[in-house]
Amino acid sequence: MALELYLDLFSQPCRSVYIFAKTNNIPFDFKKLSLLDGEQYGEEFGKITLIRKVPALRDGDFCLAESSAIMLYLAEKFKTPDFWYPADLQRRALINEYLSWQHTAIRLHGSKIFWLRLMIPKLLGVDVPQDKMDAALEDLNGSLKLIEEKFIQDKLFIAGDHISLADLVAIVEVMQPVGSGLDVFEGRPKLSAWRDRVQAAIGKEIFDEAHKTIMEAQESVPLMDGSKMQFFKPKILRIFL
């Protein structure tokens, strides 16, 4: 039985796992799952993970959730190059530091901007108050500033001279608000240069392939059937508004 990855490339963590597997030529069956259609709540997916989130992995009888755990599992199983998660204690610590920070910082704030600028008004048909948008932008700008000044600094990548898991996790989150039409790289030459280095290290083809869905979101979202989201609407508005 081939290793299976359950993914929705609308999701940032799914893109990081997808890029890592593709960049390292790890063979896998791509099991596409639509979060917007609620497929994560299906009976079959519940057998993969009770967390009911993607990404998820099934390797024979072994199942695993959470993107960082999945990438570390793949790194160990397929003996990927050391630079992804170095044996060096301090470089590994820098990666762990970023992975620990990002969940409640850039992940939260980038996602919020994506929903406030695009999904909530265009799919759910709800106007977003300007004060909510302004506060979300302030939070996002704070996280982007920390990525530049704290995590990148004057290095090529977050953990030093080579790309690592931290950069993969970072780039997909930074690209999420871009999918809503917000150019987060404008006026941020350090962030822009880092993005270019990450893209070059991954390879433009894989980078573009992973981000195709999110980069086309401004065109695709208005054409989606918003009625499918009505069940989730109260929860979404509670989280983001």
Automatic annotation (TrEMBL):
Q: Where does the source fall among the domains of life?
A: Eukaryota
GO MF, one term, reads: glutathione transferase activity
Name the InterPro entries on file.
Glutathione-S-Trfase_C-like, Glutathione-S-Trfase_C_sf, Glutathione_S-Trfase, Glutathione_S-Trfase_N, GST_C, GST_C_Theta, GST_N_Theta, GST_Theta
Q: Which CDD domains match?
A: GST_C_Theta, GST_N_Theta
From the Swiss-Prot or TrEMBL record, state where the protein is found: Cytoplasm
The Enzyme Commission number assigned here is 2.5.1.18
A Gene Ontology annotation in the biological process aspect, one of them, is: glutathione metabolic process
Q: What are the GST C-terminal domain coordinates in residue numbering?
A: 88-223
Q: Which UniProt keywords apply?
A: Cytoplasm, Transferase
| UniProt-listed PROSITE patterns | GST_CTER, GST_NTER
Q: Which GO terms describe its cellular component?
A: cytoplasm
Its UniProt entry gives the catalysed reaction(s) as:
RX + glutathione = an S-substituted glutathione + a halide anion + H(+)
Q: Report the main location listed first in the record.
A: cytoplasm
GST N-terminal domain location: 1-82
Similarity section: Belongs to the GST superfamily. Theta family.
Binding partners and assembly = Homodimer.
Could you identify this protein by its name?
glutathione transferase
